[in-house]
Design goal:
Blueprint lengths: L1 H13 L5 H5 L4 H10 L3 E3 L7 E6 L9 E6 L4 E7 L3 H4 L9 H12 L1 E10 L2 E9 L7 E8 L2 E8 L2
Antiparallel strand pairs: 1-2, 2-3, 3-4, 4-8, 5-6, 6-7, 7-8
Amino acid sequence: MKRLLLLLLIPTLSYSQITYEDIMSIDTTDSFIRVMIENGYEKVVNQSDDTYIVYSKNLTEDSLSNSFCMYNNVDRIYRLGLNKTSLFDKLGIDDIRENSYDMIVNDIKKNCKYYDIEKTTVNEDEYEYVCYSCMESKYIGKIGFTIKDGWGWIRNFPYY
């Protein structure tokens, strides 16, 4: 039964994932929105602040999602939060597949050059990002990644 469930769900779970190439192409509000829509993300209405554009994948009524992506259209900073716990993990089935976060990070490490460690604070939580400089990126700056509370976070650090 578990194998049948696995065979039925694999195509839907692997469909339309954000890639390294997608992330390297984000340098404007329009390019962020394009990447989100092309990868099946839905805009989350944010009535309190128009500085941030937020998209989510598979958002439920109780505001749960397996992926949130936000873009600060003033500072041109994007932040992608990708849940590293798959549906299979939740069902007690060992999931040996790489998730979107792992695939993107592997491509960053393969194609970019290590730069430094950046510390940021979000809602009083401190994050330490391993940062790389990528020649392929359309934005001017570096990209960082980290894991916190089962979520993989990827964001850019623009140079001004």
